[in-house]
User: Fold this.
Amino acid sequence: MPTCGHFRTPRPWEEGGMHYGHTTVLSATFLSDAEAVSRVLPAPLQLPAEPLVTVYGVMCRDVAWLAGKNYNIGAMDVACVFDGEVDRNVHGTYCVVMWENMTEPILGGRDHSGVAKIYATITDFQHKDDACSTAVSHFGHPIFDLSVSGLNTLDAAARAEIEAAKHDSVWMNLKHFPNVENDGADISYICTYPSSGTCPEAWEGTGSVQFHRSTFEQNPTQFDVINLLADLPILEMRTSRLVVFAPMKALDRRPKRLK
Amino acid sequence: MPTCGHFRTPRPWEEGGMHYGHTTVLSATFLSDAEAVSRVLPAPLQLPAEPLVTVYGVMCRDVAWLAGKNYNIGAMDVACVFDGEVDRNVHGTYCVVMWENMTEPILGGRDHSGVAKIYATITDFQHKDDACSTAVSHFGHPIFDLSVSGLNTLDAAARAEIEAAKHDSVWMNLKHFPNVENDGADISYICTYPSSGTCPEAWEGTGSVQFHRSTFEQNPTQFDVINLLADLPILEMRTSRLVVFAPMKALDRRPKRLK
Amino acid sequence: MPTCGHFRTPRPWEEGGMHYGHTTVLSATFLSDAEAVSRVLPAPLQLPAEPLVTVYGVMCRDVAWLAGKNYNIGAMDVACVFDGEVDRNVHGTYCVVMWENMTEPILGGRDHSGVAKIYATITDFQHKDDACSTAVSHFGHPIFDLSVSGLNTLDAAARAEIEAAKHDSVWMNLKHFPNVENDGADISYICTYPSSGTCPEAWEGTGSVQFHRSTFEQNPTQFDVINLLADLPILEMRTSRLVVFAPMKALDRRPKRLK
Amino acid sequence: MPTCGHFRTPRPWEEGGMHYGHTTVLSATFLSDAEAVSRVLPAPLQLPAEPLVTVYGVMCRDVAWLAGKNYNIGAMDVACVFDGEVDRNVHGTYCVVMWENMTEPILGGRDHSGVAKIYATITDFQHKDDACSTAVSHFGHPIFDLSVSGLNTLDAAARAEIEAAKHDSVWMNLKHFPNVENDGADISYICTYPSSGTCPEAWEGTGSVQFHRSTFEQNPTQFDVINLLADLPILEMRTSRLVVFAPMKALDRRPKRLK
Assistant:
């Protein structure tokens, strides 16, 4: 029986992870309002002391499971806490939505790991003077623009911290599929997605994020999530960076369902 | 909490189904070899007396849940029987794989109804003399070509039969999602997807199907399913048609899990 | 020697024109301001008594020279007069800019006929209630939205007038190519582009046009023309229609250079 | 009056050329048959002693006139001689055809410089082991695959030679536009297109080129040129390289019409 959209390797963590030869991450973190952020955070996840939001883009290059093909990401994570019966007080980030410009990683990420991936057009990073930017759009309408300017090189110590943070962070997703009658869920649980990377180059600067509100006519399946994100107040910009991971290893350790 | 890729209406069957203003279906059915077909049919589905395979394309136009946007389909169904403890000896067709040229219907169809949908480039139907054809490709490599030539108009009685067959047929999918550790399944069941349509125009002719073998380098996530389909021998062409449904109503009745 | 982007038939007018099996034209005409319109009208063309502007979209289907493939158009014409030494007081329309969503017709139209064609994403017409609309965008940024609502069917007499007007109208383009040193022009002349069509169906309604201003960063090669169009005041809406030509014959008569 | 598809800077050579922040060129040169090559070489160009053909791909990144956007190229050059009344015995290369995956550079290159540019889908370079490859396709059908394997780093002396060769080479195009009646040409002359670049990295290896024959149905406007290229015999592979130019300056000197 054919299985569509499957991993080449069913359990990549048994082989060191999925190899991404070169990824570049552009990210801007900001402090938002707790009540607004709580509207994008599903139960049982809770807000930590600071409602931090990170908007980011990723250029994935030399992707082994795609025979070396490329794709881009535009996404939003929020800081969160999972406090369950087995897994107590786990601090991490929850992926609210992840746009990708290729259906293949969307299907793999949704089916296996529950990542809330959907489709958009995502520009390769554009560089101008000391700034780097990307833009996400769909059906001819802008979704968000992300830019980090005044980029300054980070030294080896800072890059070592970035590598450690990537390795140790807990990236959480809600794997949720409704049942076929749509009166309940077939699956609904929080799970993790580990990854690691070597950071040969990184820069820090001043981030800027702009969401563009949308309508049903413009973007019929995404306007509601776009408008929820656009409603998040930006109270204070925090760390904003351009970071290279080469290579990056996705699912280099076993993911787990949090309980 | 945002839910991505969801139906506008959670239970379309409570509102008469999802409205497709105009759909056109180009299909070619052939008799194949039982052993070859059994390789694309998952348990617990069984082969009926005749191993019939249908390759088809659909142009979906004026799709209400997409604010009137359009998309195309290229797919394969095989005749099958579900014989369970509750649902006994149910004859219908199983959708082996469905390519679509837009990610939105792929996600909805997978998440809720378990349809094995993946992405491809699919041409609008091309008309030449008395033939109609479509072509499915991905990453610059052809997947299959479908053509029906010598098209003759079908009369009202034949069209009434087509409408009845569409309404009464049982279209089955395997809703299957692996668990996050990939050592078992979160979900795995056979479910139905009802639809109906009004047929104002239809033609019958001689069908022709050609699959193109693929490699990992050409189509890294689809080459195996493509090659399975390409291996199906075409022993005898059967009914081949061009059929308009306007409107078509998808999920006009409640889908169900077969047991 | 290969010639790229050439017509299959060098002189289509010797064979009855280029066959378009089915085209649908959505158009809205408005009265604008003479001074503003004069900024989009190149010498030696002159404004007629009324500065009329027509914004339109076309769905070209079953295009013979593209082996039956399809493409869409979004464009603007303005009423104009050519008053030369040989061709005196010729009334017609000038095509300010024509966006198309396929490079093939762009190249043919530019190279041979001097049409100011450039690339954009153009939606298939979307129908909702009694309205029909299309949208032109590029690089994820909207260019213009066009809609005609309150559509009422036109009778056979009106359709005969539409056919006559299409056959008899003089559609003018400025064929202009700079020389390789870019200090003058290799070619610069006004030429015509005849076409005809059979009109089996047509509707009239109330038109609506909205242009979206653009920047270099959003649309680096088109922002200036977009902003010129966005600057045209809409003083009064005039005839707005949805018209089918099936078939349409492009270049069914010999085009000519006006002198 | 709007001019569509124009250079931002009309005469880039007065400002140091058009800035391309980063370009990577993958190329394979082979010895072919004089008679076959003569079929892709227009008069008055002549073949040199050796009928050398170069097939290449280029990834253009950080393109200033596109506000930092990117595009890819796939093309073929052949060695040639222009021996005119003024310009005597000029050795260089003629660009037979250049596919690009964005319409903007196609229009600029055709209108101003006469480059025989047409549209295709062109993959970003894929790296595997010590090989680098790219693939050109259109409408779901492959046009050519290019690969260079066994890549070895070139030293500073070799890179200085590459820079000098790029600066000093004469790249020729036939700027040819038919007149509107298509019974003669509005323009038809050979012109040059200078460029320069800094080469920080380069590799040499073993090239491999495969053209895929095409039909009118598969690629209605390009099948004839594709088949002409596919007919060129590969008698002996010559220099094959992967070369980075960062930055590259296009039209850094005044182009000229050869006489």
Summary: Chain A has a mean pLDDT of 95. Residues 156-168 of chain A form the longest helix (13 residues). Chain A touches chain C through ten residues (CB under 8 Å). Chain A is about 15% helix and 45% strand.
